[in-house]
Amino acid sequence: MVRDDDPDPSPTPDSVRLTADELAFLLGDPAAQTRRAERNARANRVRTERRHADPSYAERLRTDERERQRRRRAKAAIGQPERDPSPPAPLPALTTEEARARLTAFLEQAGTPQAAQLRGRAEALDRYVEGFVVYRALAASGERPTRGALAAALKAQYGRSLTPSQIQNLRDRIEGFAKPGGPWHPRFQPPSDSGG
User: What is the pLDDT of residue 158?
Assistant: First the structure.
């Protein structure tokens, strides 16, 4: 028997109290939850199939997701000090032919399946070399070229139109090739011919 002056014999600490969402889930109709899960799975399947079949739809989804991420970052940045802009990759002063020769030598030296695949794609090599030229010109201002500026310069100078994701990949590759050991690093040493 519990006396009147005893504390509540079964207090419920806050850590074990259920939230409103958890209560709704537990009290909800299991059949409705199953139908909702099936409907979501069906919608995901349809979206995935359409994304594979329709490149413009896939690009629209990627654009929407990038915009959502941009808005999320902008909201999170409210009240935060602005970050300094990223510096550009330090690309050496090379002619188009020198940039291509270094890239080709690097790919031959790398010996990876990806490098072999890239070596066989002249259009991809052209794109990287054109990207090198416009990146270096835009970086002369001392700031990292934006994707929009790269896209506009490639279109104006070479008539090349790329999607935003292709531009992002191109900029990442150019900056990667400018790191130590890469073909466009200022101190890159092409392999010397050791055959006699």
Answer: 92
